Q: What sequence folds into this?
């Protein structure tokens, strides 16, 4: 069963208008923070909530905000990562489409907590129609005195600018995003320094995912303890999972952290299409290891639970595959994706994903041997951990996990390598 | 298709200035300005790039270098309708390959090509954030989801 907090207004008529948002108690969190709390108290409340970044890495949000130097002489920036391009993930789109004011309120509370006057929403160019929706909401918020100078009658001032990307998966990586927002090619930077210390234009910058910011008003209104209690001790609150693939009712589902993955698939999503059997699940967007049906049985949807079950929670993109799925072909599909999206900056990822793709193509043509599978196995550790940014790792995990967990799907595409001497 | 000279009205110039004014540093305006030019001209012509360079105090190389990184920006006419079919995993699982075949047959072109009359360009793209409504495509900026061959026909037939 869903626990609707961030998605609770999705079915409200005119949910994106400020009138309905205010009628549903909207902007109470912002008013409470501005008129009754010190910025440090806001950060403290977010720490208490044990909210962890919903972009995929799950870093504690309050701790990240706490890393921003309080007395920086430079301006500080808040950046919303609305680049959402992880295959299988489509939750941020619905959050912005159906309830833009929830995001705006979260952004303003964050800006207050960090004493930032400037917020950017970096949104992928493909979500062009959402730019108009966000700008309309920003205009409404301004009319009501929530954006601009003297917000809620206090001395706090803040502006929000929506910035379009132009097609590049890597620009979701926060430092690539910052380079892109500065007007350069979207190549990632080396971390540390983390953006919290040196981000946009070299200034302290907090980058968070859309869903992370959307949780903030609820934490301020109801308190961090209340929010945490919705989930598990270490993974507080609720999380939205985008379910896609072979289920009867695909869609975005908001559940308490710690919810059983099997129940999400079987009950909420109505089970597998055509009454077929489950074969595999990629639970956290394409970058995380694939799970077998057996691993799904006991898995719970929280950071610790997913790690225990042999994968990662990631961005919450649950990709479900039935028994007819050929895991070699889905893995081929993903390596093609990563090869296409490699930004080309570093050699292991640029060249490595090229080689991997060539081998997968060869095998798909029916010309592969078991020696090619060995070559793939040898290539992967030369990319993983050796690339400039995590995209290189993300390209490899789906392959190594699929080859280990579904070896027969790979073997059936290749011939024995008897006559072919394997390379050293 | 309008040339950049047609597009460059005082109003366009004012829009460009308003975009630049949003940023603490001018160069940040480069992507929104490239979109502005492309949406008006169907692609980014050379004089459009020159205009942006001049506005931002950059040289042509800077603009060209940034532009070529991004898959949504084009330096040649795109075509009236840019069909961008998602080929990534969720869409793949839900029948994107059949939709591609159908589009190829109907339009007589392969991904990456344009119809001779310049009306359609077919592209295969990576995940567009419609995974729960797969298979999906965009025509220009519009999303079309839960595609079937029949639905694709109806969508294309309805285009002006
Ligand atoms: N939502 C999506 O569309 C996608 C999400 N991802 C996810 O992205 C994840 C990887 O993201 P990364 O940003 O590389 O992870 P990361 O672990 O480097 O960072 C996570 C966040 O915590 C901050 N952080 C970490 N340590 C810090 C410190 N010591 N001081 C200050 N701040 C600190 C970072 O700045 C960042 O904002 C993957 O786990 C993957 O699931 C990947 C692709 C697409
Ligand atoms: C290749 C790559 C792509 C990423 N894409 C996104 C993305 O589209 N959206 C997002 O929120 N985070 C994305 N991330 C994670 C961000 O770098 C960063 O961790 C996140 O925006 C921080 O926000 P959070 O703490 O709220 O999760 C990506 C990371 C990598 C390595
Ligand atoms: S790992 Fe890939 S995406 Fe990351 S910097 Fe290197 S080439 Fe670019
Ligand atoms: S995989 Fe096609 S829209 Fe995400």
A:
């Amino acid at each position: 069963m869903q626990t609707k907090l961030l998605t609770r207004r999705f079915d409200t008529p005119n949910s994106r208008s400020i009138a309905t948002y205010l009628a549903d108690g909207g902007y109470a969190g912002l008013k409470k923070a501005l008129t009754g709390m010190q910025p440090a108290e806001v950060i403290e409340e977010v720490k208490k909530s044990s909210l962890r970044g919903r972009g995929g890495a799950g870093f504690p949000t309050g701790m990240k905000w706490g890393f921003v130097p309080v007395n920086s002489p430079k301006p500080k920036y808040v950046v919303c990562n609305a680049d959402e391009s992880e295959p299988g993930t489509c939750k941020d789109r619905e959050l912005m489409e159906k309830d833009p004011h929830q995001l705006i309120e979260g952004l303003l509370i964050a800006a207050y907590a960090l004493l930032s006057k400037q917020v950017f929403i970096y949104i992928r160019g493909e979500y062009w129609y959402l730019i108009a929706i966000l700008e309309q909401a920003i205009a409404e918020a301004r009319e009501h005195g929530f954006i601009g100078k003297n917000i809620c009658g206090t001395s706090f001032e803040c502006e929000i600018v929506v910035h379009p990307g132009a097609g590049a998966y890597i620009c979701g990586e926060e430092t690539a995003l910052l380079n892109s927002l500065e007007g350069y090619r979207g190549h990632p930077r080396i971390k540390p320094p983390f953006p919290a210390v040196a981000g946009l234009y070299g200034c302290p910058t907090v980058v968070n995912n859309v869903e992370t910011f959307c949780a903030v008003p609820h934490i301020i209104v109801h308190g961090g303890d209340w929010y945490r209690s919705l989930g598990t001790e270490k993974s507080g609150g609720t999380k939205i999972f985008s379910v896609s693939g072979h289920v009867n009712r695909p869609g975005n589902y908001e559940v308490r952290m710690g919810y059983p993955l099997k129940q999400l698939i079987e009950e909420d999503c109505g089970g597998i299409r055509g009454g077929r059997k489950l074969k595999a699940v990629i639970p956290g967007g394409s970058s995380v290891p694939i799970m077998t049906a057996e691993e799904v049985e006991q898995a719970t949807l929280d950071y610790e639970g997913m790690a225990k079950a042999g994968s990662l929670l990631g961005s919450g993109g649950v990709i479900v595959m039935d028994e007819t799925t050929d895991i070699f072909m889905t893995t081929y599909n993903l390596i093609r994706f990563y090869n296409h999206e490699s930004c080309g900056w570093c050699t292991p990822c640029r060249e490595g994903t090229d080689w991997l793709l060539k081998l997968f193509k060869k095998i798909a043509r029916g010309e592969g041997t078991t020696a090619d599978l060995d070559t793939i196995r040898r290539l992967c550790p030369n990319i993983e951990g050796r690339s400039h940014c995590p995209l290189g790792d993300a390209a490899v995990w789906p392959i190594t996990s699929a080859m280990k967990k579904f070896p027969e799907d790979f073997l059936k595409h290749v011939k024995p390598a008897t006559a072919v001497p394997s390379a050293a | 298709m309008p040339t950049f000279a047609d597009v460059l009205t005082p109003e366009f110039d004012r829009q460009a200035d308003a975009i630049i004014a949003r940023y603490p540093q001018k160069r940040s305006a480069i992507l929104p300005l490239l979109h502005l030019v492309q949406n008006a001209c169907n692609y980014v012509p050379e004089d459009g790039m020159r205009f942006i360079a001049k506005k931002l105090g950059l040289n042509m190389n800077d603009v060209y270098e940034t532009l070529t990184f991004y898959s949504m920006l084009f330096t040649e006419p795109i075509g009236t309708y840019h069909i961008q079919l998602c080929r990534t995993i969720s869409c793949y699982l839900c029948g994107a390959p059949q939709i591609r075949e159908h589009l190829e047959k109907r339009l007589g072109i392969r991904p990456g090509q344009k119809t001779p009359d310049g009306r359609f360009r077919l592209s295969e793209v990576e995940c567009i954030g419609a995974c729960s409504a797969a298979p999906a495509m965009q025509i220009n900026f519009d999303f079309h989801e839960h595609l079937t061959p029949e639905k694709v026909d109806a969508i294309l037939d309805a285009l002006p």
Notes: Chain A has a mean pLDDT of 97. Residues A 53, 55-57, 59, 64, 67, 84-86, 89, 172-174, 191, 194-196, 207, 284-285, 287, 314-315, 390 surround NAI (ligand 1) (CB under 6 Å).
